[in-house]
Amino acid sequence: MGVKVCKFGGSSLADAGQFKKVRDIVLSDPDRRYVVPSAPGKRFAGDEKITDTLYKCFRLAQRNQPYEDEFERVIDRFTGIVADLGLDFDILPHLKEARALIGAGSPDYAASRGEYFSGLVLSRYLGWDFIDPAEILKFDRHGIYASEWSNELAAARLKEHEHAVIPGFYGSLPDGDVHTFSRGGSDITGAVIARAANAEIYENWTDVSGFLMADPRIVDNPKSIDVLTYKELRELSYMGATVLHEDSVFPVRKAGIPTHIMNTNRPGDPGTMIVVDDGDHRAPGTITGVAGHKNFTLISIEKAMMNSEIGFGRRVLQSLEDLGMSFEHLPTGIDTMSVIISDADLSQRREQIIERIEENTHPDTIEMTSGLALIATVGLGMVRTPGTAARLFNALARADVNVRMIDQGSSEFNIIVGVDACEFEDAIRAIYDEFVG
Fold first, then answer.
1. DSSP alpha helix (H) spans, 170-219
2. Mind giving me the DSSP string for 211-232?
3. Burial of 155 (C-beta count, 10 Å sphere; 0-12/13-18/19+)
4. Angle subtended at Cα 252 by Cα 289 and Cα 26, rounded to the nearest 5 degrees
5. pLDDT tens for each residue of 401-437
6. CA atoms within a 13 Å half-sphere pointing along the CA-CB vector of 222
């Protein structure tokens, strides 16, 4: 086997007991050579993540208010973990140094210290080398991640270490200041390190045993997904599946490295393997999963002979761009063009967007419908399978769900429907029961 890179989330490192599980997992396989830890997460309901506490310390410091008492919670958390692990490691000087710098530092520096301290503790506990990602993961002066430069630096550094712990979530700007990734920070670091190590597998360890075919809050005991492609991950994560965001694994997707989602608390579970291509071995008509979101608004623009009016669609989209808004989908007809916008983006600008579209396109009518939910049914097994759409819509009809919008991508492995938000859960269950049972 080749090199494995392991990333462990905050729940996997919440306390000393979780650190012990991580060590057992890592040392059980000699191919696991590089580990990327997150900051400790919540230990119980009502607990606070270390990163949230650090952000709070920074905000207090910026208001010239005492933050030392708040930082004591960080000190107690890490010194407690070190003591419970029985480590001969004095972490207190590192904690005190960070406490002194938070007042004069940036929010990125403050937030990054959770991962930094986790990395220090885990490297001592494993007996492995420690690599500060600020030395190998670089952002340009505008805060844009420099992927190729970082890959070269990381690859060269990893060759110097047979085993190493590299904290997640942050790197550095050209001036050396700490800078964090914006979304899925530790997941991104793990993927970056896996690419730099030319890993055979990137293992992402969390508190769930991979992806489920539907939200367990809606469908009772949904089946797990053994294998899915990065394309399917993109669709499912975009529509609400929250185990792992596709953007955070782009480096390994680009390099063709599989990602294995696994459960720290149940390491024997098979988890979910995410691959570039599954060889199109899916059974005809099968789906990979169904996911969705509520809180969308449908704007329907009608104008006679719209299809022959050059530039009409561009002017509709220009109206959105002028107001700094993005769109989700564009279902269209001959004389009708619809734009779906998330309520969060629409916010207080409903009248503005109507006025701008009218000004730019002079439509016959504009109708705005709120309270829409979008549901994506995803699966490579749907491709070129006659009757898939019919099964889906028949299932919704039997559940007495009214379909307000239909959008099937050209890739043919994704059908999106819009339904009233009040029928969202019924629709999810109807689709799941039809295809999975």
1. 185-196
2. -BSS-TTTSSSPPBPSEEEHHH
3. middle
4. 90
5. 999 888 876 566 889 999 999 999 999 999 999 999 7
6. 27
